[in-house]
Amino acid sequence: MATGRINPEKFARQLTSKISGQGGKPKPESSELWLDEPVFIVYNVARPYNSQNMGRSLMIDVSGCPYRCAFCWVHDEALGVKMQGAKPEAEPPLQQLGLRTPSGPQAAEASEQASEKTAFLPRKIARLPDEVRKPMQRDGQISADELFKYVIGNVRARLEKGEVIDTIGFTGGSPTLYRGGLLRFAELLHKARQEDPRLPKMGIYTEGFHIAHDPSYLDPFVPYKDSLRWFVSVKNATPETFSQMTRIDPCHSDNHFKAMRVIMEKLGTPVIPGGLVLDTFATPELLAEQGMKNPLVALHRKLSEIHPDFPRMLSWDKLSLKVHDRAGHERKMRGAGYETTMPPRDVLGQLQEYFERQGTPILSFTPENPRIRDRAATDMMERIAADVQARGERAKSEEGKKAATR
Ligand code: SF4
């Protein structure tokens, strides 16, 4: 590619080819950008934690993202770099992911005990030769049904003990690669929630690539929309800063904004615009720019175009260097040109001030008072989603009328 940047379409096709071939020979070529088989490659199921957005969340990390953000540790972790040099360990039993758990009450117990020990995949992958680890492993696939059995057993056991679980989240490296898996999981969870309303919703964290590329991606999710929550990561706000951060061609820089709008239009369910990593957001020089070159201006304008109140919903993060190889991580960041933003030079202050000056102060939440338990915020998110959906329907009907008169 002339820009030297990653083409996520090509990359996603490579990933689907390799994953589809698991258990047999890889498909030589795939025209598919996502998998419709009901499977995932899971590299971790984390213990529940308190999220400022999704409340108490049990997170499932999958691999398979077609981006390569400079700060991201998912690929290193999922592909087993973490384990290189570590003493080879005996293969952890597959029951750690619920693959061989007994049915009935023991299943929940076994699943719960296994919750902190499910990162068997990196160990497996670390032992594989380089050529199969790059860019994606061919191992560690799990069916959506098996994963659901494990996760729901874990969640039920926790609920029985009085623990609150608000969300079962799919994150890590782009879960949208696994459309078939997400869909089957959503179907199973939706059904289970009708029988047991205590069960949490399913949170899907995405950078927006698949949804922006083809909005019809979402169509089969419509029957399960009430059991879904969406979180779309803003991968920086201008084509240049997007590309610097993700290593993706800048022509994809609106994917996250487009995905937010499409989710609300198609499903009418709220979307949290988040994941903005302040440390990578903008250099002081860019923040001093006028107009759309300034990422603050671009970010506010793009969110406002989706809905005038949408900028209030923005959620941000600071870079976490709590990774296995901090020095290596910093080197990667510097290699991508981030010296001037590490640590952040009051990007947050400027962000908050700018949004406030535009009449849309950003709402803030804490793990103790998460967004999804805040009634006012929930009402506002639902109203925004309903407005965006209604506007989308009006636009469609206008288009239909115009086409009929042509
Ligand atoms: S989009 Fe997310 S998972 Fe993918 S490279 Fe970026 S931070 Fe990592």
Could you characterize the architecture of this molecule?
The chain is an alpha/beta fold. It has one domain: TIM Barrel (Alpha-Beta Barrel). It has 15 helices and 10 strands. It has helices spanning 8-20, 74-78, 105-113, 120-126, 130-133, 144-160, 179-195, 209-213, 239-246, 255-267, 284-287, 295-306, 326-335, 347-357, 375-405; strands spanning 39-45, 49-51, 55-62, 141-143, 167-172, 201-206, 228-233, 271-274, 276-277, 316-317. Strands 1, 2, 3, 4, 5, 6, 7 and 8 form an 8-stranded mixed beta sheet that branches. It has a two-stranded parallel sheet with strand order 9-10. The chain is globular. Residues 78-139 have low confidence and may be disordered. It binds iron/sulfur cluster. Residues 65, 67-69, 72, 74, 173-174, 207, 246 line the site of iron/sulfur cluster (SF4).
Largest sheet: 8 strands, mixed
Percent helix, as a range, is: 40-55%
In total, how many beta strands?
10
Structural class computed from helices and strand pairing: alpha/beta
Question: How many independent structural domains?
Answer: 1
Spell out the helices and strands N to C.
HEEEHHHHEHEHEHEHHEEHHEHHH
Tell me the number of helical segments per DSSP (H or I, 4 or more residues long). Answer: 15
Indicate the proportion of strand residues.
5-15%
Oligomer state of the chains in this structure: single chain
| Spatial extent as radius of gyration | 21 Å
Q: What ligands are attached or bound here?
A: iron/sulfur cluster
CATH superfamily caption: Aldolase class I
**CATH topology assignment:** TIM Barrel
- Overall shape: it is globular
Terminal CA distance reads 40 Å
| Unreliable sequence segments | 78-139
CATH architecture: Alpha-Beta Barrel
Q: Could you name the CATH class?
A: Alpha Beta
On the 0 to 100 scale, the average pLDDT is 79
